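Ticket reopened. Same input as before:
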Amino acid sequence: MNLTFLQIAFKNLTRNRRRSLFTLAAIFFGIAIVIILKGVADGFLNMTVESVVKSRIGAIQVHKVGFMENLAGNPVGLNFEYPPELEQKILAIEHVTGVAPRVNFSGTISNGKNQTIVFGTGVKPSSELKVCPQAPSIITKGRSLKDEDASQIIVGNELANSLDLDVGSSSNVTLSGASPEGRQNAVDASVSGTAAALNALAELRFVTVPLKLAQDLTGLEQRVTELALSVDHMENIPAVKAKLRELLGNKYEVIDWQEAQPFIRDVVFRQKVIISIVSVVLFVLVMFLVGNTMLMTVHERNKEIGTMLAIGVTQGQILRIFILEAFTLGLVGGVLGALLGIGANFIMSLNGVEFTAVFQKTLLYPEVSSSFAAGSVLAACICTILAGFLPALKASNLNPVDALRS
Amino acid sequence: MNRISFCLLLAMNYTFNQNAYADVTAAELLEKYDKIMGPAQFESEMDMTSNREDGTSRTYSMKALKSGDDKFRIWFTSPSAVSGQEILRIGDNSWLYLPNLKRASRLANRDSFQGGDFNNSDILRVNYTKDFDGKIITSEDPSSYKLELKSKNKDTSYDLIHLWIAKSNFMPLKGEYFGTSGKKLRSAEFSDVKEYSKSYTRPAKVLMKNEIVPARSSILVVKKIKIDITPAPQKFLQTDLGKG
Amino acid sequence: MHPLLIIAARNLRRNRKRTLLTLGALVIGISIMMSLRGFINAVLSAQIDAAIYGYTGMIQIHKAGYSKNVLSSPLDQSIKDTPELRAKILAVPQVTGLAPRLQFTGLYSTAPDSQGNSETSFMGLLGIDPASEDVVAPNLKSWTTDGTFLSHSDRKEIVLNKDLAAIIGSKINLAATEDQWPVLMSSDVDGSLNGEILKPVGLLANAVPGDKRFALVPLETARKLLRMEGLATSYLLRVSSLAVVETTAQNLKQTLGPEFEVQTWEELIPVLKKMTADIGRIFYFISIAFYTVIILGIVNAMFMSVLERTREIGTMMSVGVRRQQIVLLFVVEGFLLAVVGAFAGVLAGYFFVFLMHHFGIPISAPGSTFKFLMRPTLDPSWVLANGSISILFTSLVSLWPAYRASRLDPVEALQAT
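Engineering reply: fixed in the latest deploy. New output:
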């Protein structure tokens, strides 16, 4: 029984190619756009977060208690031990993909003629690359640090400019600092690269130095002031935080990127809201347009419906045929559109699309979500069916004579 | 004089002189330095001139009162911008009294003391006997002892110090101050030895140089100083700030 | 032409349902695109507004070399704030306001509590003249979350960043007596320390990226503290409209000469302009995509119309109506549809945007101190462009069914049902 109806439905569709193709095309384009848009939107949100998280701060940070609230003094006073066993234990936590030790300190930098305050971070380049894979993107000149570097440093652009520093061994500087107990020290360094600040309003007098150099400068030996962690997916951050708190106890504070950079958190939230609104509105618009097309299509066939009624086809059978037609259109158009949409997102995600995130240029990688695509196709089918069903219902309720006449 | 007597005389002379110089140990030299440069308590009037790398310089005149290792108070008298300001240091805490506010505020960081002009004077804050192990090493200058001081603990500002002390009067002549990396951070020249009282003689002038930014230097001149005093304890209370 | 329009209108009226459905698609499509554009404009302009009416101003003037120098004391490169200089700047055409600012750092120390403890914090500070800021950067004041903004240029007041105040424990207590007020200490140009006792009067939201260690103080109070009477580190300017910023900046550079540096807000935060361009680009693609869908529906409708009127077309051709005229007729129908649809769509769009603008759309992150109120606006030239393009494309695309109509064989057409 069903097979016959399907054949009828199919014949109806192929009989009027223009009509079917246009409806199909509307669904096809509509679904493709919706999927591409969602992919780009999600990619945009990720990019905004990652531009900060993966280039500078890391998803999660660990400090000695009181670090974030320490406003007056040198951050180096709140340091802690970081033995290899601790690193192992942290890496063993589920969802953690990397941990980078850091030493935050303040001191002075001098080119022999001038001296100014500087805020420094001592890092281990190989760990940093794991936790902040986009870190090299903030380097404007020269190169980023490598594990073998002993006295090469990265200097902020404006600072390098003010102190007449250039990349290369001819540009030597002296970094001075003090241990928490007051022991002065100074080391000579050469500039291997210059970097951009987080944004135009952030601290411009910063340097990034090898971890050992920072530890020597501040007399910290094997100790650090901060651990930055990366996770496999942002959604797992709360779980990882909980495990870290369990592991480390209450002498440490564990924060995520939102607490470290509340301004970015606010910006991302606003963007999410805006993008959601835009996506929903556009999705509804597409569904509306699809339904609109179906409505017109079916209205056109009132006479056809009248004819069917006249020859004795029951209302139920008519409706079944129309639903099948609508469903086929919705499914075929939807699936093709979904394929186009996912394909486009995938291709764009291979190399990324150049974009401007919160304050810097990065690449946008659209998300490829098959679940969303499937959902859209489903929504399209439902829409088409509804849009095809209702006018067919109305027409089939008519007196066959009136229907024939319309 | 016959030859034997002459030789005996020479021998006696030699022995006598050796004894004179072999008597002094590094520890004794350090003790002498501490007594000269860091008496347990003193009351003084001094000028500190700060030369910055942009060519400008500023001279602060002040009165100071010290008691023990950890109590120190300064009254600024000039220039007019700072006249009436006082600084009280007890241990690691410092307070700044501003006369126009009639209030004392805690200073968070030693370096914020008068805008960094005073951070060369770290070298004056040392108690060598307590914090350093001394060793006499060969001096480039035969009229002075050269001491190598190695820090005994992590709390000293400098890890290693070279100190030249005059053999004639045990006055410090020169100092070099090194960080843990071995880099020379500061240097000092002591000069203008003056007798302030029957029992107290010391260099009136200390020139301190920042070896990393050589254009930065400070000069301390001690105009008056008395060490045989008993500072009143209430002078080192926060509540006394502003009372003169 | 005129009779053609009448005929086209009549034809459209004949199949009410289809015409209405097509119009519906156009109206809803256009009005929604307009609403979205207005919304996105609101988002972009909110960010730009925060900058130009808040922290950067439209144009900034410094002593030459100020921006690039990050060494110890920017106070060395300050502007002599004289009435003559101000008059000179205000005389430049299109300049509508000038606000002097003094940017410096200091140490903030709360009054000792019962145990004698006090909290201290280093912070970045901005000395401002509330009256001038009202004209040039009114947003600063609007970012106050608690208490009040600074009242006058010479009062002993301070407005703190809200998060910083929470950490320090500085509560806004307007009834506090002077001995409970905190002290702000700073080094003057020569390096001597000075201090002022200031009353915390208000808290500021995190509207600007950067350190929470930030506060605002009145300009004259800051000058007294830093012993920098008559000096400023920057001038913020307002000009009559965003469009003239560039030319006014050029004028200012000429008028002031090499002793000063003049920067526009776009130079200060180049990313904002790029973001606007990027988002414009995306919206452009979205628009094209959606109009494609809309137009597909319209074309479909027109084909249906042609099909339905096959006999009529056959009749027309048999009475001598030429093929070109048939084409013209259908194109005019499409054109009419497009014009009415676009017109109604634009009206509806303006209406929605007006509603959103009137009530404002509040968006603020949980836990954030800054409330964002979006007021969508539309650029009339954009609306005009969009409307015209949709009319143009719809008309063009109606050529297709029109052409098919004209290719009908009159004899066959007459025989159709």
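The two ends of chain C are 30 Å apart (CA to CA). Chain C touches chain B through 20 residues (CB under 8 Å). Please confirm and we'll close it.
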